[in-house]
Amino acid sequence: xxxxxxxxxxxxxxxxxxxxxxxxxxxxxxxxxxxxxxxxxxxxxxxxxxxxxxxxxxxxxxxxxxxxxxxxxxxxxxxxxxxxxxxxxxxxxxxxxxxxxxxxxxxxxxxxxxxxxxxxxxxxxxxxxxxxxxxxxxxxxxxxxxxxxxxxxxxxxxxxxxxxxxxxxxxxxxxxxxxxxxxxxxxxxxxxxxxxxxxxxxxxxxxxx
Length: 209
Description:
Strand order of the largest sheet: 1-2-3-4-5-6
Shape: globular
Oligomer: single chain
CATH architecture: 4-Layer Sandwich
Structural class: alpha/beta
Number of domains: 1
CATH topology: Metallo-beta-lactamase, Chain A
Radius of gyration: 16 Å
Number of strands: 14
């Protein structure tokens, strides 16, 4: 049986630079009836664990280190024994949230993760954060972009550790280079496609966000 994509939405808060905002996060589960990975364990470990059920959770993959995307990761790891994976360049952000616990492993650009016969490749796509990654699954015609690319433009770059020219380079060189019919599954909100977003790159650059 081929891997499938399951989708949860969890709610909580995002805090950085002295502010706190209410947010809804997309949580993605990829796998089959026997084994899965979770992308972005946000807010509620019990809800995610219930969705995983009795399947083997092979890894908890963090697209970046903002607290809303990692808040449930340690509790989910404690419940399931799954390793938490993060890009090394976001360790500082992780440490802001969990100073007494490290991730279990670090993702590097082009690292491959196999689950249920499907291969995902980590693409280092910094800008929203220094260690932001996207996960490309060619056989599923999907890329999981975290907060790097949304329907309607780049992720936010107005807070600490973010940089607009860098996120534009990541989107232009890594994401828009993917096949046009690739579905973009984001960290918040609706999905889109590479084809739908590519024509607007120059507009995003002109507006500066």
